[in-house]
Amino acid sequence: MKFDASQFDNLELDNIGQWPAAAKLLLAVFLAVMVGFLGYMGLISDQMKELDRVSYEEKTLKESYRAKYHVAANLDLFRAQMVEAEDTFANQLRSLPNSHEIPGLLDDITFVGTTSGLDFVKLEWQPEISKEIYIELPIDIEVIGPYHSFGQFVSKIAGLPRIVTLHDFKISISQSDSEILNLKLQAKTYRYQEEAAK
């Protein structure tokens, strides 16, 4: 069968039945492609988008399920860890001075300094600094004495039963005696914010 382009001349839509076989075949293929394309656009493309959305949702739900399953499978372990964390937190809170213990803290620092061989020049409270969950209570300290006594002082401060941190160390030589040093520092203790609201 030879292809003859002249068979496509003078084709009329009114008389499709009389068209040559090649023209009918070409029209049928064109109509099939158009019906397939329009069917895809009208019916399938929306469903494909819906399928993509549902597949993504399924993946998200599976990940959420895995995470929740992991928590549920280890629930007893998590509860035990929570109890342990609460105990640790309660122990840390007990290391913070209560309102009635704060004045005694100055006595403790004075005792620690004098037993370390230091003389106090200055020991005074500074204004409280309120943080999110605690209140910072700074104390300015200035002492004089030999260098090794400073080490004993700092060591004994660290051994106090209450939390006290030391900051901003400045050591200078005394003008009257080169063996005597001057130490300025700031000690900070902390109080739990909830207790402060009581």
Automatic annotation (TrEMBL):
InterPro entries attached to this UniProt entry: PilO (IPR007445), Transl_elong_EF1B/ribsomal_bS6 (IPR014717)
Gene Ontology BP term (one): type IV pilus assembly
Membrane-traversing stretches: 21-43
Keywords: Membrane, Transmembrane, Transmembrane helix
Source organism superkingdom: Bacteria
UniProt cross-references to PANTHER family, sorted A to Z: FIMBRIAL ASSEMBLY PROTEIN PILO-LIKE PROTEIN-RELATED, TYPE IV PILUS INNER MEMBRANE COMPONENT PILO
Protein name: Type IV pilus biogenesis protein PilO
Species name: Colwellia psychrerythraea (strain 34H / ATCC BAA-681) (Vibrio psychroerythus)
Gene that this sequence comes from: pilO
